[in-house]
Each structure stands twice: as C-alpha cells, then as structure tokens.
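Students often ask why we bother encoding 3D structure as a string. The short answer is that it lets us treat folding as translation between two languages. Here is a chain of 615 residues written in the first language.
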Amino acid sequence: MCGIVGYIGHRDAYPIIIKGLQRLEYRGYDSAGIALFDGSDINLSKTKGKVEHLKKKAEESMSLKGGLGIGHTRWATHGIPNDENSHPHISNSGDLVIVHNGIIENYESIKKELTKRGYNFHSDTDTEVLVNLIEEVKKKEDVKLGHAVQIALSEVVGAYAIAIIDRNKPDEIVVAKLGSPLAIGVGENEFFVASDASPFIEYTNNAVYLADEEMAIVRLGKEIKLRKIKDDAIAYPNIMELKLNIEEIEKGGYDHFMLKEIYEQPRAILDTYRGRLNVDQGLIKMAGIDDNLERFMNADRIIIVACGTSWHAGLVAEYIFEDLARIPVEVEYASEFRYRNPVITDKDVVIAISQSGETADTLAAIKLAKANGAFVFGVCNVVGSSIARETDAGAYTHAGPEIGVASTKAFTTQITVLTLVALKLAKEKGVFPESKYHEFLIELESIPSKVERALESNALVEIIAEVYKNATNCLYLGRGYNFPVALEGALKLKEISYIHAEGYPAAEMKHGPIALIDEQMPVFVIATKKGHYDKVVSNIQEIKSRKGKIIAIVTEGDSQVKELADHVIEVPETIESLTPLLTTIPLQLLSYHIAVMRGCNVDQPRNLAKSVTVE
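And here it is in the second language, the structure alphabet:
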C-alpha cells in the first residue's frame, strides 16, 4: 500500500522522485522519504507526514544533486508513523538504502539472528530488517548486490516490492516483486521505477511490469533482464506501450480527484461498453466470455470475490446474474474466502473484482480458486496488473486512472461490465425474451446521458449536505438492487467524512436499527419507482412516525415519497437492474460535499490507502 519511486539517468533525480511521490500519495501518506546519490555519497531525508512536508525538509537540509535516487510514501504497517519508521531505510554500514512496499512476516526471527551478529536497529519496521539481511548476505557470501538480494529474498516470508541502491554501485538500482506491484519505465538511456506508471508517464510510455518472484538489475547502458528469484531462470521483459496520458492523472480544474472522478462517470461507463455493445446488431462482444463460453454455460454457480466497494459491485452483480441469466451466485469477501475452507470445484466460475488489480486478499482468493480447479474471470481497471495476469480470462473496465481513495467510477464501471456479462449469458442460455434483451441493450446505451442528468442534482445535494454535515450517525436503506447501493453510500460517508453510517435492507430496519431512529437521525432511503416501491414507502412511513429525518432518492416525477420525505433527490427512470448506476451518484456527491464542509481530506482520508496490497 506504500508508493515507490526510483530514477537513474541523465536528468536530476530529485524533481522526478518528488513529483512521482505526489502522484503516488494515494497509496499512503503517513510519512515520506527520499535518498539521492550525488556522485560521492547518499543523501537522505525522511519525515512523518505528507510529501509536501518531505519536500520542504529535503530542500532545506540536503543536497539535491544526482541522477540516481529512490523515494517512498508510506502507509504504516510495522511501526507507528514517525521519522524513524519512514523509508528509505539504510543498512548498518551505510552502503545500502532500500524502499519497500509489503510485509515481511518472519522479520522478528531474522531480526533476532541479525542482532546476535551485531546489527543495530533504529526503527520498528520489517524493512530495516530486510536491508540488513541483504547486507549480511552480501558480506557473508561475498556476492554482488543483485545476487545478495536474490538469496535474501529466498529466506523471507511475505510480500514485497523493493528498490535498493548501493553507494558502491552508482549506476544501478535492484528491484524485486512478490505480491506488490512494481513497474520499470524504459526511456532513452534512463530508467524509472514505480508502484504504477503515473510517476513516469510524462517521460516515457514504455514500461515493464514485474511478475511475482521476479527481480531485475536496472543498469545504465544495459538492457533490462529479469531473473526469477527462486530458480535463477532469466526472463526477457515484455515492454508494454502505455495508453495512459498525463491529463488523466491531473485534477483538470476540479478541487479534488474524487469530484473529478464522479463527473467522469458518463465517459467512463461509455468507454467500458464501447466496442462491446452493439445495439443495432443486438450483440455483446467480449473476448473473455466468447473464448470461454462453455465454462460459463456449464457452470454450477458463480462465486464473486472482492473487497470494499468492489464487493458492493459484486452484490449488485448477484442480483443481475440470478435475475437475468438464472445462474446461482455467491458473493464472498476475499479476505474471508481465502482463510476458510470453501467448497470449490471445477464446475465453478469465480469472478474476481478489483479496481487496482493488486488487492492482496483478492489475489490470494484467485490462487485458492485456481488450485481447486475453478475457472477464474477477472474484472479490473489497471492494464497489466497482477489480477489481469493471474486470472484465466477477464475484462477491463476502462474507467481510466482512479486516484481518489474513495472509489466512485470503479463502482459504476464494474457494474457495467458485469451487466454486459450477465446479458450475454442470458442471451446464450435462451432464458431471456428477445424483446426484453433488446430493451436492455437500448437502455444500457442510454445510461451515460442519464448519469449526466443525475449529476445535475449536485447543487441540491450540496444544500442537503449543509443540513447534515454535523450528523454523528446515519442510516442508508435500500431494497433489491439498491440494497448494495445503500451499503456503498454508507461506506463513502464513513471513508471520507468519518461519520458513522450503516447500510441495511429497508425491510430489516424493524429488526433492530429502528431503535436508533429519532429526530437527530438522518435516514437516506433509495426509493425508485422500480422494485418494491410500495414496500419502501411503508418503511419510510415507519421512519416518519418516529421523527427520523428522511432524505430520499426517487425517480423523476415521484409525488408519493415527496410528501413524506424531508428532502428528495430525483434520478432519471431506468430498468430496475440498472438503477444502481444512477442512484449511487447523489450519494457519492453527498459524501463528497459533507467531507469538504467538515474540513476532511477528501482524496486522502485518514488511515486509508487506495490499493490494499498487504493483509
């Protein structure tokens, strides 16, 4: 969950690394640090706090010269956020400097052994243990840095992406990966290292993504060669041409990335079904399904594994697959699935959902499913990510970079992809009337324009946010397809506003949560005309009779709920299974505005990071 940046080449490394860390700060912002080699010595600066604090400290206290350097922005695991626990970490001799993303699970036993051998430790981190283990191996085995890294990593248990430099080897950076992402940007006589491509996209669009248990010695004037850590086999890199552009990772005039990404949803949904949905011909083309249709058609069930917002998208998909395609579906938290003893067979299809494609628990769930013979289909946003490589087949969401920690367009584009899959399978199975199938295609094609209309509620939502910005607790209620939207709305509020919120199926309110309702309790109810409308109206009346404050998301033109609710936000009418793509919009905007009004850091909420690559 930390961000790594490295550079070696003919430019000054400092501005590249600092700007790169700022772009990776969504991955962790407890602390940050930088190490630069100026031609004779390694200069290091690190601090608790954000990259801006590091920038100020470094520019006041150290030499910024040199074309070799590594940097890090941290999401704390081992050791509290402070200066000592910040990366980079330096070995006892002062020769080796490392940055690390991941967790070394057996670091305590290694630390005890190194302490017996005279090593001293100045932090509480597993990373300082790792750099000194590498130093010990290098000294004991009398080997070069690359070989020492290889031997040391064979002895550790856990996950890592590392970049390490040696003051005695000023022309190279050694990198390695297991379970945490790492990319190498390839320029003209220069190389970049980063957790994703955003730090180097303005310099090169050529990148190599390391696979698990691969390492590389990145050396000026040399071609990159990848080496397997365990068996020493040499692999030749696949240099990918990136489609990312610099405008996609800038705010583009918006105050926050989250707001920009909320407003990008019409385009993101369109890009997700572009080339896949052909309404005129009545076709859905998805290579990952077409090439593996038999596995889906013969599946006993679909198991969806995901975490967080992606899990909520999976819940929506459960309704869609069972309703349209008549395939049984189970939705699992990946973190629970991987640690129990689930019944999985070769007749199962497992769909793994992850925005980043690097979620550690979801990756572990994929490996468990494959080991038991299941066919695994991935849904992710990041091209070349670990989940894209580990799954048997899959589909990208094409949402574009999502930098705000609270996912928005990831949710709606994941639902879009999963809707396409369900519709295609329903058509192939013959369980869907042809007329209804075409109605769905036409309606799905219209969703981007309807999302644009839903975004027109922004001014009204801001007024409502002003009323409830000081709430301490909130309830979110929905039924059917919109129960997962209630969960997602509550999550958004918790994530960025730090207000306690819970989502429930509306009918479950009377089984406990209704005890919480009084005149101080805001209750957000999704009450669209499609799906159990009368039942939801009854639930609203139950809230009203107990003096709860009702904020309702309704279909345009609704009059019945308007008479009951304190506030009403309208969304366009659509088919019931597509309503989550619209009803989630005002809830995203509401969370955003409340967070801004409360003075919260919208894009970097406390204790969170964008990509959860550690357990």
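Translate back mentally: The chain has three domains: 3-246, 256-450, 458-597. Keep this in mind for the problem set.
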